[in-house]
């Protein structure tokens, strides 16, 4: 796993491969969005499980988890641009308070703030439900299709989702982290967001694996 991230760092810092990445990302944003989020977010789940359990284990329904993350990556492409451009329009019309000399920072901050308070909770809830479908169905499509929606909803720990995921990770991690993300060039935002999800998963796994 470490080798993978070192290789990724080398590819992004080497001028030739960096230029290829930027060109591909500009020419095929949805395909790259699918691959970046699909690969990195799934890898993050594998690493988190490895830290929590102490050994590598195959994720239940791995292909479906990858597919869902990939589809979310496709959605992130227009969503990121929608919020970033929308906030710029609001700032230009002076509908949000801003210090003109710090326009770039305020645009990044407001984009992160508004996106994480509106889109993020919906996306996170959706992903909790899809994970529940996969887990309850044992990763088998035939079993997944037989599940009732109400039973899936009941299996999700909504108290933990609300008190921890929404009320803690969003204000204390995602809003600051995505502020930094939106300060970066557009070609690197979704990649950075995917890497941040890996980082958060690792941090939470380390925290939960410590003896209490």
UniProtKB/TrEMBL annotation:
Keyword Transmembrane recorded: yes
Domain of life according to the entry: Bacteria
Keywords: Membrane, Transmembrane, Transmembrane helix
Transmembrane segments: 29-46, 66-84, 104-126, 156-175, 187-206
Protein name as catalogued: Mpv17/PMP22 family protein
UniProt source species: Fervidobacterium thailandense
């Amino acid at each position: 796993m470490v080798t993978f991230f070192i290789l990724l760092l080398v590819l992004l810092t080497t001028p030739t491969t960096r230029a290829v990445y930027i060109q591909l990302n500009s020419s095929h944003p949805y395909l790259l969005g699918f691959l970046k989020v699909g690969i990195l977010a799934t890898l993050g789940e594998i690493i988190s499980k490895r830290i929590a359990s102490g050994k590598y284990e195959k994720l239940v329904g791995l292909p479906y988890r990858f597919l869902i993350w990939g589809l979310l990556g496709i959605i992130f492409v227009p969503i990121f641009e929608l919020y970033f451009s929308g906030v710029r329009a609001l700032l230009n019309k002076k509908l949000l308070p801003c210090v003109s000399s710090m326009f770039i920072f305020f645009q990044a901050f407001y984009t992160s703030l508004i996106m994480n308070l509106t889109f993020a909770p919906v996306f996170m809830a959706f992903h909790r439900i899809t994970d529940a479908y996969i887990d309850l169905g044992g990763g088998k499509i035939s079993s997944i299709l037989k599940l009732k929606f109400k039973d899936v909803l009941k299996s999700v720990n909504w108290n933990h989702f609300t008190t921890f995921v929404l009320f803690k990770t969003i204000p204390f991690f995602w809003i600051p982290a995505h502020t930094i993300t939106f300060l970066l060039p557009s070609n690197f935002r979704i990649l950075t967001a995917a890497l941040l999800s890996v980082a958060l998963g690792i941090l939470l796994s380390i925290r939960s694996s410590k003896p209490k």
